[in-house]
Amino acid sequence: MSVRTSIAVLLALVLASGTASAVCDTKKRSAIKFDRYEVKQKTAYDKQRRLTWQRCSVGQTWDGKSCLGPVDSVTWDDAWDAAYHAGAGWRVPTKQELLTLISLGCHDPALNDQAFPGMDPDSLLYWSGSQDSNGVWIVNFASGGLRQYRGQIQQYAVRLVRSGR
Fold it and tell me: Does the pTM of the predicted model rise above 0.85?
């Protein structure tokens, strides 16, 4: 097998995996280090912000090492329903809370993927629970950006959070 063919096969396998793997420059001050989190299987406790995050996006399952399966794309109302059904204090995070996950030292996705593995490269827009008269806030984990939408019928991903441990 030629080098070119080997590279093409390897690239196809990586793309077929269906998960985004962050490209990070850990030397940048803006990169969030893994030791910021206390990780326990399905959750990551942010010691700095005192928030506990679900490591997997809604729709995915934890297999002991990573988040598997497709990320659910849901309406804003369905995001709130998912939080309600998760119980135990889980909720849709505010835009400020979601922005604490952004690691500007990383991109595609712009977060620490050791703490939050298995991000879907096709589902990097996440609902926040924040809204005002101009609409609902969305966090873009591809770039770390913030957007606002008037409608609530679009479908995006959601990652749940709760205060404290």
Answer: no
Cα–Cα distance between 151 and 165 in angstroms, integer? 33
In angstroms, the CA 137 to CA 134 distance is 9
For position 13, what pLDDT does the model report?
Answer: 33
The residue length of the chain stands at 165
At position 54, the amino acid (one-letter code) is Q
At residue 165, the 3 state secondary structure works out as coil
DSSP E strand stretches across the chain: 23-24, 37-40, 43-46, 51-54, 61-62, 67-68, 106-107, 125-132, 135-140, 145-149, 161-163
What distance in Å separates the CA atoms of residue 147 and residue 128, rounded to the nearest whole number? Answer: 10
CB 124 within 8 A of CB 140: yes
**pLDDT tens for each residue of 78-123:** 999 999 999 999 999 999 999 999 988 887 889 988 899 999 999 9
Confidence (pLDDT) at 91 = 98
User: Distance between CA atoms of 41 and 145, rounded to whole angstroms?
Assistant: 28
Task: Please check whether residue 31 is in contact with residue 24, taking contact to mean a CB–CB distance below 8 angstroms.
Answer: yes
